[in-house]
Design brief:
Number of helices: 13
Radius of gyration: 53 Å
Strand content: under 5%
Shape: rod-shaped
Distance between the termini: 155 Å
Structural class: mainly alpha
Number of strands: 0
Length: about 350
């Protein structure tokens, strides 16, 4: 949980998604399937912005497994379909084939036997199918053939044998079906021995073995014993029904977290829209202020140019006036000089006349 808490606050979308995925796997390995579903739902939410489609496919496969253990086959099938979408987008053939095998099992759980049959046949016809996946398909296909209305017992038995030769892993349900097939091909002692060993190994599988034993008793015409086994099967399945009913909580929680994720996305989108609007408003205001400022500067420049022009005009007028005054002053000085010359000439003339007058009178 420490790693999840850290990455949920500081990690990238990929790191957040992966940390929740591993938490979901830890819960699943401990049998806490509801907690696993919630953690995996958080993984999908945290990885909303991640481009790792392959990892998202793995998350949906893990969710399908969790729903399978809680008897919610409808959700199991939905998750497998989503996983296939992501794996197809990734182009990873190994993951696509693994998801198809899960799809075949989920179809079988939904009693879509024809769809499951075609998927198993498709997978088993692939030459380079991964050995572990091939052994799994052999077991599950043999199990499917045991369920059909007109089962091919010999074919089912050969498929089981082929799987055993490949060291396939058998679940309790698979082993019970294998024991039933032994009876169908005439190995009654072997069938009873297998049923007994299975029940001794795990008493909780009695409900599983009872379902197959009921089929045997019906084929033998022992309907009273068949009814008793049917009752055991019903009692066993009632637990599964209760778990399936409890899944409404898990589904509700999943839907809640999905709704929260959608709400957060809407809030983030709204926040981004508000931020864009605020930014646009600020830019508009700045552009308006810039426009006003440029106009003020332009008008100031025009006013300054006009003032300079007027000043130059006045300076020109002053210079012209100064020149005119200077010219007049020079003219006055010239007139004054001429007047003095004339005045001196007149004085000199008067002086000569006076001298002549004196000489004549003496």
């Amino acid at each position: 949980m420490d790693a999840v808490n850290y990455y949920s606050r500081h990690g990238s979308p990929d790191q957040k998604m992966q940390s929740y995925y591993y938490l979901g796997r830890i819960h699943g390995n401990a049998g806490r399937w509801s907690e696993s579903i919630i953690a995996l739902t958080n993984a999908l939410e945290a990885g909303e912005e991640s481009a790792d489609v392959k990892y998202k496919g793995r998350i949906y496969i893990a969710m399908a497994d969790a729903y399978n253990h809680n008897y919610n086959v409808v959700e199991e099938c939905r998750c497998v379909d989503r996983a296939l979408e992501y794996f197809n987008a990734s182009g990873d053939s190994l993951q696509i084939r693994a998801a198809l095998s899960c799809k075949a099992v989920s179809s079988m759980n939904l009693t879509r036997y024809e769809e499951a049959d075609s998927l198993f046949q498709y997978l088993l016809a692939i030459p380079d199918l991964r050995p572990s996946l091939k052994s799994k398909c052999l077991v599950k296909y043999a199990y499917l053939l045991s369920l059909t209305d007109n089962p091919d017992y010999d074919r089912s038995y050969k498929l089981f044998q082929d799987a055993i030769s490949r060291q396939a892993v058998f679940s309790a349900k698979d082993m019970a079906a294998y024991a039933y097939i032994h009876w169908c091909i005439g190995d009654t002692a072997g069938s009873e021995k297998m049923f007994r060993a299975l029940e001794q190994q795990d008493s909780s599988v009695v409900g599983i073995t009872a379902w197959w034993k009921r089929l045997i008793k019906e084929k033998q015409g022992q309907y009273r014993e068949a009814y008793d086994y049917l009752k055991e099967t019903v009692d066993y399945n009632s637990e599964g029904v209760n778990k399936a009913l409890q899944q409404s909580l898990s589904v509700a929680q999943r839907d809640y977290f999905s709704a929260v994720a959608e709400q957060r996305k809407a809030e983030a989108k709204s926040s981004r829209a508000i931020s864009v609007l605020v930014a646009a408003t600020l830019i508009s205001v700045l552009l308006l202020l810039l426009y006003i400022g440029m106009n003020v500067i332009r008008r100031g420049k025009e006013r300054n140019l006009q003032i300079i022009s007027d000043l130059e005009y006045v300076q020109g007028k002053l210079a012209a006036t100064r020149q005119s005054v200077q010219a007049r002053q020079e003219e006055i000085v010239s007139i004054q000089s001429k007047f003095r010359e004339v005045f001196q000439s007149h004085l000199q003339m008067l002086a000569r006349l006076y001298e002549d007058y004196k000489m004549n009178n003496s």
